[in-house]
Amino acid sequence: MANLTPELARLRDETCELARSYGLDCYDVIFELVDHDELNMVASYGGFPVRYPHWRFGMEYEHLGKSYAWGLSKIYELVVNNDPCYAYLMRSNSITEQKLVMAHVYGHCDFFKNNAWFARTSRKMMDELANHGARIRRYMDRFGQGTVEDFIDVVHSLDNLIDPYAVLGQRLAAPAAPAAPPAADAGETPRLPAKDYMDRYINPPAYLQRQQERIRSEAAQARRFPARPERDVLKFLLEHAPLESWQQDVLAMLRDEACYFAPQGMTKIMNEGWAVFWHSQLMTRHLCDASEIVHYCDTHSGTLATRPGQLNPYKLGVELYRHVEERWNKGRFGPEWMRCDDPEQRRAWNQPTGKGREKVFEVRRVHDDITFVDEFVTPEFAEEQKMFVYGRDQQTGQLVIVDRDYTKVKEQLLTALTNFGNPIIRVVDGNHGNRGELCLAHEWASGDLQLDQAQETLKGLQRLWGRPVHIETIAEGKGRLLSFDGKESKAQDVTASHPAVGRVGFGKKG
Amino acid sequence: MPVRRIDQDHTRFRQIVDGRIKRDLKKFVSSGELVGKQGDRFVTIPLPQIALPRFRHGTNPSQGVGQGEGQPGQPAPGQQGDQPGAGQAGEEAGEHELEVEVPIADLARILGEELELPAIEPRGQKQLRTDGQRYSGISRAGPNSLRHFKRTFREALKRQIASGQYDPDRPLVVPIREDMRFRAPKPTRQPEASAVVVYMMDVSGSMGGEQKEIVRIEAFWIDAWLRHQYRNLEVRYIVHDAEAHEVDQHSFFHLKESGGTKISSAYELCWELVRDRYPASEWNVYPFHFSDGDNWSSSDTTHCVKLLRDSLLPHCNQFCYGQVKSAYGSGQFKKDLDAAFRGEPKVVTSDITDRDGILPSIKAFLGKGR
What we know:
The structure holds two protein chains of two kinds.
Chain A: H1 6-21, E1 29-34, H2 36-44, H3 55-69, E2 77-80, E3 85-90, H4 95-114, H5 125-143, H6 145-158, H7 196-202, H8 205-223, H9 233-240, H10 245-266, H11 268-287, H12 293-304, H13 313-329, H14 334-339, H15 343-348, H16 356-366, H17 369-376, H18 379-384, E4 387-392, E5 399-403, H19 406-417, E6 424-432, E7 437-443, H20 451-465, E8 469-475, E9 478-484, E10 489-494, H21 499-503
Parallel strand pairs in A: 1-3, 7-8
Antiparallel strand pairs in A: 2-3, 4-5, 6-7, 8-9, 9-10
Chain B: H1 5-23, H2 25-31, H3 33-36, E1 42-46, E2 63-67, E3 99-103, H4 104-115, E4 128-139, H5 149-162, E5 182-191, E6 194-202, H6 209-229, E7 232-240, E8 244-247, H7 249-254, H8 263-277, E9 283-291, H9 298-315, E10 319-324, H10 332-340, E11 347-352, H11 358-366
Parallel strand pairs in B: 6-7, 6-9, 9-10, 10-11
Antiparallel strand pairs in B: 1-3, 4-5, 7-8
Helix pairs in contact in B: 4-6, 6-11, 8-9
């Protein structure tokens, strides 16, 4: 349902043509002209006006409506990763803003279609979410709105516990359980082949002992459930929690939705940066006429404004792309560049290769925010962008600049991006204490959990699992085990050497 | 325009908010935090617990990355804290408590439901005012576009069951002409009556800050309820120690005086006010008096009783006396009033020992529907 005015329709065609001429590769984009109230409504549903009923969306709607009414925030644009792409234009935007938004949207759309992390997201999500909505409505009719809503509330409070990297590999289909390792005879330890007289040297007692330990720990590992810590807690619950069939269905749908939205969280900087990169290209080279340029700059700078304490993904993203393009245009890559550590020479380095454009297209295809920052935030970039690490001054309570050292900046950035700032939590034991209790472990990386919230979340988890649930974490440097057994919450100290805490820590970065 | 999905979700959200407020009403009332956040028609209520809990990191990470000028050790640029005079304000960037705006009318409704307050039957002319029409009624005739599907279905089902046509194995329900039900406009009626509340408070030395705070909270809720009942409500404030003065709202709650207590002075002033400005034929009059129960002398108490009986009571809907417990008050005045007006329904007295006593006291004052 395109309801664009003839002028906007002409603009859309023009923008689309331009975008394609630069090599952007988009799905068809369907623009809809909406007023602010409709836009707030769509935005409350995360872009999908067809979703299942839930009060959370109503809360978001009220919040957006108030922010708009008070002039605190205004949504310029909203794009949905779908084929065709849906994008919404605010009716009250000026024509310059509409141009900017359209160019921006084509950037996003190209990114959705071509970035590797989106490769496995459903492109018919609008339809799928409508189906989810219909199914959940049916459950509500059948089991009561309150019942279903309570269940959805519980799932929502857990829906950050998925494995965002699972969307890439085919890990969704559970790998066949590896054949049980041949039970090692108690007395028989595998030995390296050796002649009798050499045996004492080739298989010394210490070696044999290590072998025995290994066998024992492997056997223990095999008895564990799950065999390896499971990052995708929702999936684990789906497969093993005692749920009714409608609950299973709802949980599966909500997990799908969380997985669908995960790549957008993983590529915020890249995605927004890419869209800004292209809207500024298209606007300044083609779409803007002289009378509009000031208005454009005003809007554009509003988008890129950086407030300290908040990293603006638009700003960081676009600067990184430009930095990459410049580097590759000037040939600042490859072994020679890496070997050169004379700052003067590096600053003056210019071997025109013209590979910049090609490189940024490659970058937008293969990276996510973490690898993007890791790969391309260089000392030069950090300095140019005046990046710093801030921290709280213990005495004044003020935020002060702590360091401008590039490695610190980068470390801090990567930490903040890890798992989109969510704690990394795994199921380590589905049969804790051999009593069918569920034990999660928080892999402590950058900060403590909010303990009161964690206790509340456990209550919901316990309702799904049916048996007592626990989470191991580290609070103020000490191991803590939080539990909820259906009646009361408990927290106790555990030593850091508790097996479950020690068990986590392999698995991918991120 | 069709009902939009978001409106359903929004209504549901408001229902949940209402439910939370109802559940925690006692806490909200006794903490008094609503009173401070009062706007013109709305109250902002903090409801952090409505957000779903999650496993998350502490909200205020002590470190982050920023961009801008400055040397290590200097304040990070642009934070509100480095404007002079801003002090510690605005430090907790990114942390915002969930707050919900609730119309005061809704609060009054919730209060009414929780305390089971009866609607007030206004005195005097009971003109009813028609305030627009809403399609909340049901009629047997109407255009098809207003057909009420559920009601129609129910009628048809009832008829079929009653006449034995209904077959549970083949639940086919066919409505006929007589089953049809339609939405119909229904005038909503509201009393046109006006009311005046006169708050009187003892500000003698024995009434401390906590006592005044209790009065303030109680007055807020009484206002909210009466505003809910009357379209037109005026509020007057009288303070008294040994003599009485009419003051505005702010001074009423903040004035600090010392000296003796002569309650009759307030009653006299109140009576003058009511007599001159608010004739009983047109106004519903609600005097409220709060004190810690000490009076100058027993002869003054007798005078008070006489004033009430002869002058004020015939003009009032109800006279309410709330006795706030303080360390110094003897509490004698309530006993005297109770003794003098035993069996008089227009006089209501109540003891408020602490903040938890506010709700029962409101219930006592407003529970009679006068």
